[in-house]
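A.,

Following up on our hallway conversation. Structure tokens first:
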């Protein structure tokens, strides 16, 4: 099976990016090359904050050069705010939940709501990685005796797509590609993935693709719809995932047998793919009732556990929206 254009986009090696005239192909190169403009941070200021900024961003272990660059910019802005406010610049005292929230409230007023949410998320991730005593809570959230694992990171998702393109057989490549597509693209459960057939798909105006399940209709995320359509062309008369053992106790696990993942990646869990999809959908501004309908769930506890991953918009934007003005 030839990788589709959509699969190629998700499974490629990270592209090089330019940082101060230098071509950087790794996160480490970005961290070393980065230097903010002197109009924002002069030499003496960078000497005061630069070593710490590089140290805390390196602690995260980014793979993507672009994500590392975003983290460097976020940490630099945060450190400059602390420097001008005469706040302590030690990691354990600066990268705390309270300081990050204070910065989000008073130090990001010039940022757009989207940039503010992105920066806040980057700083929280840096804080968890770069400190050992700061009171960061664990990323997993407990509810009713269960644990909701956090969504997969962008770097982990890219790693899974890379693995899908390097399996030993076309069959295994197809299975992993299907699991990623149906999990990240439509939030399907394990038992739903194995029985999706071409006849269950709907094509609509504007490039919209839907999956018609027995209990609901799920729109496929636009970035993954081309991959799903490519899979259908390869197997027009069978389940999208390929041959399924109807008598197996766990048909999806039987399909996944033999699929190999690099040791650097966490275990691939369908429920965690579903959480990753759910967070993306909820960030898009969908109404709660609409999300519950397409997700096929009524669990408020699960939604509560997702709140930390969805992010908070600018207060004034929220107020205008709630008042019916935005």
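Then the amino acids I'd put at each of the 326 positions:
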């Amino acid at each position: 099976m030839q990788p589709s254009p959509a699969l190629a986009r998700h499974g490629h090696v990270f592209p090089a990016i330019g940082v101060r005239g230098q071509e950087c192909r790794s996160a480490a190169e970005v961290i070393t090359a980065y230097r903010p403009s002197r109009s924002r941070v002069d030499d003496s200021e960078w000497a005061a904050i630069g070593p710490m900024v590089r140290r805390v961003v390196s602690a995260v272990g980014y793979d993507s050069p672009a994500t590392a660059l975003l983290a460097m910019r976020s940490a630099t802005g945060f450190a400059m705010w602390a420097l001008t406010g005469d706040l302590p610049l030690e990691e354990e005292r600066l990268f705390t939940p309270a300081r990050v929230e204070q910065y989000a409230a008073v130090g990001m007023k010039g940022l757009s709501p989207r940039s503010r949410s992105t920066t806040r998320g980057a700083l929280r991730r840096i804080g968890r990685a770069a400190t050992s005593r700061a009171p960061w809570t664990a990323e997993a959230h407990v509810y009713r005796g269960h644990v909701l694992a956090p969504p997969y990171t962008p770097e982990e998702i890219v790693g899974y797509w890379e693995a899908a393109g390097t399996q030993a057989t076309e069959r295994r490549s197809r299975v992993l590609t299907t699991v990623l597509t149906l999990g990240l693209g439509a939030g399907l459960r394990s038992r739903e993935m194995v029985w999706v057939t071409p006849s269950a798909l709907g094509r609509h105006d504007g490039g919209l693709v839907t999956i018609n399940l027995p209990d609901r209709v799920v729109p496929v995320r636009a970035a993954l719809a081309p991959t799903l359509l490519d899979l259908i062309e390869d197997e027009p008369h069978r389940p999208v995932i390929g041959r399924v053992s109807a008598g197996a106790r766990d048909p999806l696990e039987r399909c996944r047998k033999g699929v190999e993942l690099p040791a650097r990646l966490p275990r691939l869990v369908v429920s965690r793919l579903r959480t990753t999809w759910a967070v993306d959908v909820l960030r898009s501004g969908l109404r709660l009732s609409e999300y519950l309908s397409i997700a096929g769930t009524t669990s408020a506890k699960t939604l509560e556990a997702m709140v930390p991953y969805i992010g908070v918009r600018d207060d004034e934007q929220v107020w205008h929206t709630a008042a019916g003005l935005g």
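Residues 1-12, 140-146 have pLDDT under 50 and may be disordered. Curious whether your intuition agrees with the design.

B.
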